[in-house]
Design a protein that fits this description.
This protein has helices spanning 33-42, 53-58, 64-73, 87-96, 105-109, 111-121, 150-159, 181-190, 205-213, 223-226, 232-241; strands at residues 3-11, 14-19, 22-30, 47-52, 77-81, 100-103, 126-129, 132-133, 136-139, 144-149, 164-168, 195-199, 218-221, 250-258, 261-270. By secondary structure, the protein is α/β, with parallel strands linked by helices.
Length: 271
């Protein structure tokens, strides 16, 4: 099932968005992140990408109370990032109610620690952040370029057992000019076992449909929603229609086109 994952980015406890990771280009959209999260949940959305931008700068979690409020006030599956750069911080985030952690800069700077988290918490609990600028990994809130190829980086983590990644093309983020489809196609080709969550650049429902057709795990929607390019009703409708046949039992009727045969109706058992 293709996942629609709205984003809430936090600065001083408020819901904000940046443009291309630039803290000087901050725009506040709400002073109450819990109410924003409740609106997403009310629309039938199941997941939330929660980022502590203060924490990313401070290299420790700053807005812990917001995780706690959203976890207690909703049933959303929260993946949390920003300032998770030590064993103490990851324990705090999970204790506050996060379901998954996004390992961003720490995944570049301390591979052994992140792999240790795979072993301690399970690889399903850790999302590897793979943000790129010109296909090189960007770190520290995108303020630094690591000179590491995103493809080498992901191949290394895939071999180490990583299951999920979030990848943002920094050049696309916040510009509402469309996602980096080519980048995700390259990652799929080189790292087929990874569940890819696209992020950055989404501007329209057409973008969501194209990403869904690529069979990615999901997409993070941020500025396009907050700027009114995509409405909550559209997200709700899209999310409710993004289903797979897994879990269904019985029979499904469909048609298949074969060479030299116009239409061949078949019935497939769903086991």
């Amino acid at each position: 099932m293709f996942q629609i994952i709205p984003a809430i980015d936090l600065i001083e406890g408020q819901c904000v968005r940046l443009t291309q990771g630039d803290y000087a280009q901050k725009k506040v959209y709400s002073s109450d992140p819990l109410e924003v999260a409740k609106a997403f949940e009310g629309a039938g959305i199941k997941r939330l990408h929660l980022v502590d931008l203060d924490g990313a700068k401070a290299k420790k979690i700053v807005n812990l109370h917001v995780i706690e409020k959203i976890a207690k006030g909703t049933s959303l599956h929260i993946d949390f990032g920003g300032g998770v750069q030590s064993d103490e911080m990851i324990d705090l985030a999970f204790s506050a109610g996060a379901a998954q952690i996004t390992a961003g800069s720490i995944a570049v700077r301390n591979r052994d620690m992140v792999i240790g988290w795979f072993q301690k918490y399970g690889a399903d609990k850790i999302i590897v952040g793979a943000d790129a600028h010109h296909e090189q990994i960007a770190v520290s809130g995108w303020q630094e370029n690591s000179n590491i190829s995103i493809f080498d980086f992901l191949t290394d983590y895939e071999k180490a057992g990583a299951r999920y990644i979030i990848s943002t093309d920094v050049a696309k983020d916040g510009l509402l000019q469309g996602p980096s489809f080519e980048l995700y196609e390259k990652i799929q080709a080189q790292n087929p076992s990874l569940n890819i969550i696209a992020s950055g650049g989404v501007a329209s429902m057409d973008d969501l449909n194209q990403l869904k057709e690529m069979n990615l795990f999901g997409v993070i929607v941020g500025k396009a929603f907050y700027e009114g390019r995509i409405t909550l009703d559209e997200l709700a409708s899209f999310s409710n229609n993004s289903f797979s046949l897994s879990g269904f039992k019985g029979m499904v009727r469909c048609t298949v086109t074969l060479p030299y045969v116009d239409v061949l109706p078949i019935t497939i058992p769903l086991l």
